[in-house]
Every structure is written in structure tokens, then in C-alpha cells.
Amino acid sequence: MPELPEVQALAEFLDERATGRRVVAADVAAIAALKTFDPPVSALLGREVAGVSRHGKWLDVRLSGTGDAGEETAHLHLLFHLSRGGWVRWSDQAPTTPVRPRMGGSSRGSALALRVRLDDGAGFDLTEAGTRKRLAVHVVRDPQEVEQVATLGVDPLSDDFTPQSLAALMQAKNQQVKGLLRDQRAIAGIGNAYSDEILHVARTSPFKLTRSFTDAEVAALHDAVVTTLRDAVATSSGKPAKELKDAKRAGMRVHGRTGETCPVCGDVVREVSFADRSLQYCATCQTGGQVLADRRMSRLLK
């Protein structure tokens, strides 16, 4: 799943290439991916891309003008969340062949969900791989109309994210720290992969309870969040969309590296598996050498 650094890079990539161009086609291929009906997708036609930004892990294509349909709203937003299997595929010369809508499908390969073509012939596809289709596309007048956007927590790269604000979040509910980092209503943009990386940098167990952190540990965690994400954004920035996935994998220290060597201490990277995901960590760096039991309600083995 793309997280804050990759979504930021995709926003910059699309902003550079699409801003100032007019939408001449917007064709839905996967009906289930479209979560809104008013305004319709056709309201995007004729509008100019005013910019592309992100909200947490959501991409926001802002469009200005009244468009071909005469929609009175000055701005519309094409909002989409790529979820686990979604991606953006840019074409300097977008296909002009008709797109056939489909209601569903169980294809494991990448399937087209939405195609947007611009007036210079370029455009982008939203695709989704796998059988579990979770890509979400919204056409709205205001991003706050989408509940998942309206309820996002603090952006970890904003000035509002301070050691004090993090401490308040950690005291609000006593929970495992990895769960807090992944909670989009608390901190927007961090998922399974970067929470593993952050906790490795902070030398903290993923199961440490938030109310057990000292002030110094909170400060160290805050620094790990900011530095890890900023470094990842810097690595991703400027890369073509097609290279971002490989760049993300290559930059991981522990996530997705079960059985490999920890780059800090040389110990083996270990894994805890759950029903639909897993986490990776280094016992030497993060748990004082103790191995976490591989079950959902894991505790440190004694």
C-alpha cells in the first residue's frame, strides 16, 4: 500500500504534469471504485487541473472552471485512495480507445478502474491489482465531504505535529504504539510499512503501550516519525510513478525483510504474522533481545 512518502511523490508527479491541462475524457471502468454520484464524473470534462495535493494517503486533483456540463461550482475535486492494490499509471500519450465499464471482477492482475485524458494527449489510469478491490474514487465539491478525509488526524510532516501533540495522542488511549501510528484518525499517512521503519529507528517495540512512554521516549519517537518520513519523501521525490514501488522496497530497513540482517546491529529481522498482514522488527534493537510471540495478542516471551 502506498503511504505518505509515495502519495506525496505521486501528488508532485501529477501536479507537475497535469496542472494547467484541461480534462477531455474521464471514463470509469470499475463501477465499484466510484463512491459518489453527485457531481457525476462527466462534470470533470472541460475543467482545468488547478493542482494536485494529498490529504494523508488520499490524492486530491483540484479542477477549476464550469466544465462542459455547466456545473456552477467553481471547483471540483477528484479524490482517490489507492488502498492496498491501487496505483497511478501515467501516459504521455493516453489511449483513446473506449473504456468498457464493469461491475466487478476477480482478476489478480492490474485492472483499469478510471482513465483520465488531458487536452495535450497525456493522461493517467487508476488501476488496481488483486482480487480484493478497495480503490476508492470520489468526485466532490469539497474534500471534507468525504468522511475519511474529514476525520484525518494530524499530518506528521506539518508544524502541528509536535512532541507535545504526539504525547497527547499517546495519553488519550493506552494502546500498542504501532496501532497508534497506523490510526489515520490520529496521525494521517502512516501505514504498516513505515510504522515498522519508524519503530526500528526509535528502537521501540511495536507492542509497547503508549502510556508507558517517558517524555524522552516520546521525543525519540517523534523524531523517528519526522526523520523517517522526511527521508523517504526526499528519496521518492522526482521519481516517475512507475519507479516508486521499487524505491520504497529498496529503502526499507526491516519491513518486508524477514530473515535478513538488521542494518544497525546485524541481528536477524523477525516477523509477527496476523490474519491479513505482518510486521517486522529487530529484537536486539527494539525489544532488548526478546522475541515477540507470533500471534495477534502477542506479548514478549519470558
UniProtKB/TrEMBL annotation:
Q: Where is the FPG-type domain?
A: 253-287
Q: Which residues form a coiled coil?
A: none
Q: Which cofactor does it need?
A: Zn(2+)
Keywords on record: DNA damage, DNA repair, DNA-binding, Glycosidase, Hydrolase, Lyase, Metal-binding, Multifunctional enzyme, Zinc, Zinc-finger
Q: Which GO terms describe its molecular function?
A: 8-oxo-7,8-dihydroguanine DNA N-glycosylase activity; class I DNA-(apurinic or apyrimidinic site) endonuclease activity; damaged DNA binding; zinc ion binding
| Annotated catalysed reactions | 2'-deoxyribonucleotide-(2'-deoxyribose 5'-phosphate)-2'-deoxyribonucleotide-DNA = a 3'-end 2'-deoxyribonucleotide-(2,3-dehydro-2,3-deoxyribose 5'-phosphate)-DNA + a 5'-end 5'-phospho-2'-deoxyribonucleoside-DNA + H(+); Hydrolysis of DNA containing ring-opened 7-methylguanine residues, releasing 2,6-diamino-4-hydroxy-5-(N-methyl)formamidopyrimidine
Return any one Pfam family short name.
zf-FPG_IleRS
Q: Single Gene Ontology BP term?
A: base-excision repair
InterPro entries xrefs: DNA_glyclase_Znf_dom_DNA_BS, FPG_cat, FPG_N, H2TH_FPG, Ribosomal_uS13-like_H2TH, Znf_DNA_glyclase/AP_lyase, Znf_FPG/IleRS
Annotated ranges, domain Formamidopyrimidine-DNA glycosylase catalytic: 2-105
Q: Which PANTHER family match?
A: FORMAMIDOPYRIMIDINE-DNA GLYCOSYLASE (PTHR22993:SF9)
What family classification does the UniProt entry report for this protein?
Belongs to the FPG family.
- The name on file for this protein is Formamidopyrimidine-DNA glycosylase
Q: What organism, scientifically named, is this protein from?
A: Krasilnikoviella flava
